[in-house]
Amino acid sequence: MKNFLQKPNEKIFGLRNLDRDTLIYRVLPRFLLEILRKYFRMEVEGAQNIPRRGAVIIAPNHSGFSGFDAFLLGHIVQQEAKRVPRVLTHHFWFLTETTAIPASKMGFTEATYENGVNALKKGNAIVLFPEGEQGNFKPTTERYQLQEFKRGFVRMALEAQCPIVPAIVLGAEETHINLKQLKFTKFLKGTVIPLPLNIIPLPAKWRIRFLEPIRLPYKASAMNDSELMHEIAQDIQEKMQAAIEEEITKRGNPFL
């Protein structure tokens, strides 16, 4: 008769053979992200729009101040498209070794133009938020109102000659409530931080939808045309805003 109280065979899970860094920065994050995926009752649509190989920019809206959207998007791309994306994130993650080391091991890269282009030229998928911190830290009263897109992601796409896959995320705005956006004018001038209402995430239902890839019909030299870059970024922003509004009209109460 099998003894159900015996110690499980650790080789089944391979835990004994994992080094500390792999366990802390890879296994545990994936385990926690799967829990969050279930907690948020996440729905994913359009994952087939993510190219399975080659350079691509995945450009989502940014919201909820906590960075959960960055974690979960990276996880979804890995699970659904079988790719390990480089997630370009806020430079605050890289101010000290304490945060920079785990961030790097979890696939985060500091959001600079050079880092994005280098990753793309190696054939990687990157997740890049065109709104930047203005979108992530906007007050909840402005939820689902896209902030002005920066143009760097368009220039990256042209320099690397790769497609852009817009993505929309619903649910993060209700998961973490931001009362206000604080802007520093004297110390740390130009820095923006949130004034959160809650730290523990609320159980809003999440939906992530990947739109069809956009392939820009221009040569790399077009990146020097600032007016064209602004026009393309604005067109993509309007396309994403329309998709967000379409999803909002269909979803009903996000907590039910």
TrEMBL record:
<dbReference type="InterPro" id="IPR002123">
    <property type="entry name" value="Plipid/glycerol_acylTrfase"/>
</dbReference>
<protein>
    <recommendedName>
        <fullName>Phospholipid/glycerol acyltransferase domain-containing protein</fullName>
    </recommendedName>
</protein>
<dbReference type="GO" id="GO:0016020">
    <property type="term" value="C:membrane"/>
</dbReference>
<dbReference type="InterPro" id="IPR016676">
    <property type="entry name" value="P_lipid/glycerol_AcTrfase_prd"/>
</dbReference>
<feature type="domain" description="Phospholipid/glycerol acyltransferase">
    <location>
        <begin position="56"/>
        <end position="172"/>
    </location>
</feature>
<dbReference type="Pfam" id="PF01553">
    <property type="entry name" value="Acyltransferase"/>
</dbReference>
<dbReference type="GO" id="GO:0016746">
    <property type="term" value="F:acyltransferase activity"/>
</dbReference>
